[in-house]
Model the fold of this input.
Amino acid sequence: MTDKLTWKDMEVGNIVKEAGNACFRRTGDWRTERPILDKDKCIKCALCWLYCPDASIKPGEDGYYEADLYYCKGCAICARICPVEAISMTEEEER
Amino acid sequence: MSRRVALEASHAVAEATRMADVDVISAYPITPQTHIPERLAEMVAYGDLDAAYIPVESEHSAMSACLGAAAVGARTFTATAGQGLELMHEVVYVASAMRYPVIMAVANRALSAPLSVWGDHSDAMAVRDTGWIQVFCQNSQEAFDLTIWAFRVGEDPQVLLPVMVHLDGFTLSHVTEPVLLPEQSEVDRFLPRYHYRFALNPDQPMTHGAFGPPEIYAETKLAQAVVFDNCKKTILQGWQEFRDIFGRHYNPVEEYRTENAETLLLTIGSFTETAKIVVDARREKGEAVGLISLRLWRPFPFEEFRRAVRGAKTLIVFERAISFGLGGPVVAEVRSALYDEETRPKVASIIGGLGGRDMSEEDFEYVIDRGREVAEKGSDRVLETVGIRGESEALKR
Done:
């Protein structure tokens, strides 16, 4: 979207007038590895949700915490912090 | 009704800032700028100025604090010199790109090494490309007037750019001269209250200072260049309004006895006043010598400059900085400005007054005579200078 804007569309001082618009930015395409949750091991402790630096881990209706891959950058902090090793990282495949 | 008072140029800048009713001052003291923040701190402490004075631990923090203040719509002022300007360098760019009209006085000082607290224009030349509107003052009255004017222009809704007011360290900053101080009501008429439309406000959250990825950075820079190009008309309008209210007229390029001048001397800052004495003496002798002084440095006043030198045979640029491997930074710009002209004067470059070296009338006499020779015959020296011992033996390879 931003690659259609010309210099005339730039706000004064490049201010972003719309608060909270980072949610429109697809940061998931930076990812080289994705987190895979093993629900058999997960104890729903929510540490992954707490530690995720991009707030891309959300509780589902079933109470399990899973990464929203639209945002998840694959940093693996969730996998590292998980006390029961329920999260593993797997390589993204070339598409 | 103006009052005529004796003021040091530094104190004239402080007084102008007080009369501009500034909201926030953040500065770190450094010679030869010290008297400016010192006086302002005093005014705040004694209740003569209702402003926040933010003491900081460095110039980098001073400029950063100014950005924060500007972000909430405060009228903001700082001052620095030499190494201090270098230390705040990266934040200087941020002020202009974020369109915060911070006003900064720079008491021009040489750069280390060797350590020097004395005056030259090395500090100013190092911030040429920072996107600030920049002017050079010739005397205390100008230091007062251009500071008031800087707020008027920088804060204009069409401009929103920071403004640097340069005054030569010591030879101007510490010189006491008569200054006409206007009535507060006149200043208020000239300088309306500042209203910044995009001030940070919790009720209307927005982001200042977001990052700019490659698909957008270049567009932001072009937008900035366009604004900088447009600011010229507000600069001129500001000086017009200044004349209407205060009766003193300023222009981007000052012309002094340039009528039918064959030889023109070009100076910036406080050199100009000494140059005028020498030009008068030459005119007395019947020589067609004139003077032009660049008051407006950024945006470069191409139009006024070209008009001012039209018809002259020789232009001698006398400046106070070196760009190593290039020569004089001012003369490089001047030559570039003349390149597309069909007829243009021959240009000579002479450098002097580095690191506080006094430049006397005799030195200016030499500049005119040697400048004419160099313009005619060229130079075999690494640099053409005045007053640097052994210079004639520093030959180009």
Notes: Chain B has a mean pLDDT of 97. Chain B has 13 helices and 14 strands.
